Amino acid sequence: MAENVWRIYLSGEIHTDWRERIVEGSAGLPAEFYSPVTDHEASDLCGEQILGAEELTFWRDRKGAGINSVRTNTLIETADIVVVRFGPKYKQWNAAFDAGYASALGKPIITLHDEEHDHALKEVDAAARATARTPEQIVEILKYVILK
Question: For residue 100, what is the domain's CATH number?
Answer without folding.
Answer: 3.40.50.2300
